[in-house]
Design the sequence.
């Protein structure tokens, strides 16, 4: 089990030539619906796949470089896996909500009158609260598990180049069981990094809002209104506000892509321990499974 997946991934990114420019270009692609997201996923998971094979290379120089001919299909398959996991998560959340809310509503309907409802409110409320807490805990745990399955499934899909490899639950589960500590460390660091990046973005947005409010207050104090011939100032202020909003949006996209690059590269390092060079077909046992069976 390799140590410091996130630290190594951070080094891989920051030691790549012109890494800020490349992450910025990927961030710009975030504003192109569907196509841009597919390119970003194909680019990052292709880089992670190389790491899984043991190829230590910097961020690819060209964003649209399609040397293996799988950039777009890889990105599309990654999006499909993410969408399926999201749908499953939403269905589980809806089911949990129905269970927790239906326990009280259904019983109240059966009792039918206000007096009976009043008599059953306390116990049913307690049961509903417990069911809600249980549903939340289950949903929380399942969301983490689905995230891990999504990462490992997308990694397997990137290695084999086929969508079906990303939905092989037994193979994915075997990999997770083999080094669950390592993948949980990546998940933990992902949560921490997401929180830090979100905090940075929140601080920037708060500062921008504060400056805008301050400027508006100054304009009002100076009596700058459209009717007194200062309409041009209002237009300029609006243009500056739009420009600031675009910069903040670009910063958000930059931080988001950077976080994704860290996670994806870390998963590539984690997968490298499974000796990918010795993998055979996607349905065949992996080297560590063969060695365990012999032992």
Sequence:
């Amino acid at each position: 089990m390799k140590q410091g997946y996130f630290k190594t991934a951070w080094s891989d990114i920051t030691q790549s030539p012109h890494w800020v420019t490349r992450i910025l270009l990927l961030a710009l692609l975030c504003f192109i619906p569907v196509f841009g997201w597919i390119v970003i996923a194909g680019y990052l998971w292709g880089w992670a796949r190389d790491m899984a094979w043991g190829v230590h290379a910097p961020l690819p120089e060209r964003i649209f470089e399609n040397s293996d001919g799988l950039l777009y299909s890889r990105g599309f398959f990654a999006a499909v896996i993410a969408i399926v996991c999201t749908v499953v998560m939403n269905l589980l959340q809806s089911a949990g909500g129905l269970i927790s809310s239906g326990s009280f509503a259904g019983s109240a309907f059966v009792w039918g009158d206000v007096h009976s409802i009043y008599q059953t409110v306390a116990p049913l409320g307690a049961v509903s609260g417990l069911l809600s807490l249980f549903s939340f805990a289950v949903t929380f745990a399942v969301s983490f598990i689905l995230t891990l399955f999504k990462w490992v499934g997308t990694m397997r899909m990137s290695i084999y180049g086929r969508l079906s490899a990303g939905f092989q639950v037994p193979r994915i589960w075997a990999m997770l069981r083999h080094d669950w500590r390592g993948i949980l460390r990546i998940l933990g660091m992902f949560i921490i990094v997401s929180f830090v990046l979100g905090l940075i973005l929140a601080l920037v947005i708060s500062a921008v809002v504060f400056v805008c409010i301050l400027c508006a207050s100054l304009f009002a104090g100076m009596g700058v209104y459209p009717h007194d011939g200062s309409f041009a100032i209002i237009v300029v202020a609006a243009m500056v506000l739009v420009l600031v909003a675009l910069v903040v949006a670009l910063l958000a996209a930059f931080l988001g892509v950077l976080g994704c690059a860290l996670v994806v590269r870390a998963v590539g390092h984690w997968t490298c321990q499974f000796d990918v060079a010795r993998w055979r077909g996607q349905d065949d046992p992996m080297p560590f499974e063969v060695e365990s069976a012999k032992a």
Confidence is low (pLDDT under 50) at residues 103-112. Residues 28 and 240 are 20 Å apart (CA to CA). The two ends are 19 Å apart (CA to CA).
